[in-house]
Amino acid sequence: MKRELGHFMIGNSYGGNQDWFRTYMMRLGGCGAETACDSSLYFAIHKGVAGIYPFDHTNLSRDDYVEFAHVMEKYLKPRMSGINKAEIYVEGYQNYLNDRDVTGISMDILDGNEPYEAAVAAVRKQIDAGYPVPTLVLNHKDKDLKDYVWHWFLINGYEETEETLMVKTVTYSWYRWLDLRRLWESGYSSKGGLVLYDLK
Fold first, then answer.
1. How far is CA 115 from CA 110, 118, 181, 194, 195, in A?
2. Which pLDDT band, with edges at 50, 70 and 90, does 66 fall under?
3. Cα dihedral angle (199, 33, 99, 9), rounded to 10 degrees?
4. Alpha-carbon Rg of the chain, whole angstroms?
5. How far apart are CA 173 and CA 157, in angstroms?
6. Residue 6: exposure state from Cβ atoms within 10 A (0-12, 13-18, ≥19)
């Protein structure tokens, strides 16, 4: 079984890209803000949530997206330790939604120390319900996953086989299919987690 959510294009870019941001710190540590921006555009385009994106979501441009990211910077500002807990993301993004008078979006957390099976169930449930999944990975022993270390990104699809659950990870204007177990079992005791959206 394979399920993929809709996303959005900005020119030839699949979603936004923190490399576009105007300041060094946002290019280095703006992944939380980028994930919130991409989530907002998803809710505007695919769920019809009004007011969540301050520009025209029917006519996306890189300039507008960058401006939006620097609005989101106020709420999810890069810091020395990074946005290294899902609770920080939830608090920041909720404050943004409150300031925009956007109601009806709630967020729960699945901690990265929960077993792999719980992550499988959560990802499957969220994608089936039509919600992308903000995901935080901290340290990881798999060197091939260096782009995901201390990084926020979205999962917006899964493909289930008898052996594993492959997930579609979205970051830096591209996507990559990865084994969720490989992502989840980092080999470190300090872990990230998932943010679980709901829309009433």
1. 10, 5, 10, 12, 15
2. very high
3. -60
4. 16
5. 16
6. exposed
